[in-house]
């Protein structure tokens, strides 16, 4: 495709097939345009930060990078695929927006370092370079609820880009910040830790990659079939439920949000946030408020497919043991590697552009579920022959 393909992803049709069926129909996937770019944010030493009790801060910083980019592309009238990863995020953006997106993220990186002493790595790789390396980036859209469509990506192109960015600090340093006021409007962190739904007792954070010799679509189809057979549909394994939602009322959490957005804690804004949270208790008891909460649950991003399966789900210990048995067998056959972390809660950070259909909610397992599951999977990959 040539220059002028900014609407490539916006105009892509949405599939309403089941994920296992979607993975098996290669014709529904399209190559990402070669003149687009992969942009990645990633917190260095996120494992240490999570172990130090900063898991919710790590999640919020990752969400902030998404908010930074989405506010830019929304103003441009463009939709781009993005993927939440717990301690960072990945975007695929057209060439025309690359400078603005990377410049804003570089500035967000500076703010993050100053406010939290965490280093948010920012880098980009041209898609044509990924293709020249022999890797693939094939994408489609999947509707996993009545109102929420997400990108589904096959190929190891994002993994290749991540390795390149993490391995070339000099490339990262060449990128320049915009030195303009960041637009982080809509970023929120108002929900307390969320216990699993009734009749379940744990939250599972799972990462799965297909091995080099395996057919990725076939393997992912098999894994999703097993997840759905054991845990049920996406709705049934949803870790977020109305009965368990509680708005936070702690000034510490409000302060973290303000530092991420403004770089400082303004007492007046802090009180205003506390008051809004207090009033939210009454608002969410109204029919309008409960309608928003229902749509919020539908628009909770609990399943991410970015060349690997990333998911957060609730269930019982028996279900998890059954799934682990299946995954162990697939791992022994040489089809997959996986990382799994179990917690007693999930955490959620939000981007709310408006209260109707302009909001999305990023879910991670408690105690840094994605980061810890990724650490376990990384050990397996390092030990593999």
Explain briefly what this protein structure is.
With 385 residues, the protein is α+β, with helices and mostly antiparallel strands.
What do you see in this structure?
With 385 residues, the protein is of the alpha+beta class. It has one domain. It contains 13 helices and 16 strands. It has helices spanning 19-23, 46-51, 55-75, 98-116, 127-132, 157-167, 169-173, 216-231, 251-262, 267-283, 287-298, 317-332, 369-383, and strands spanning 14-15, 30-31, 37-43, 82-84, 88-93, 120-126, 138-143, 149-154, 187-188, 202-210, 300-301, 303-306, 309-315, 336-343, 346-352, 359-365. Strand 4 and strand 5 (88-93) form a beta hairpin. The longest helix is centred in the N-terminal third of the chain and has 21 residues, at 55-75.
- How many domains? The number is 1
Number of helices: 13
Mean of residue pLDDT values: 87
Q: What's the β-strand tally?
A: 16
Intertermini distance: 39 Å
Q: Which consecutive residue ranges, at least 5 long each, have pLDDT under 50?
A: 169-175
The ordered string of helix (H) and strand (E) elements is EHEEHHEEHEHEEHHEEHHHHEEEHEEEH
Q: Helicity range of the residues?
A: 40-55%
Radius of gyration: 20 Å
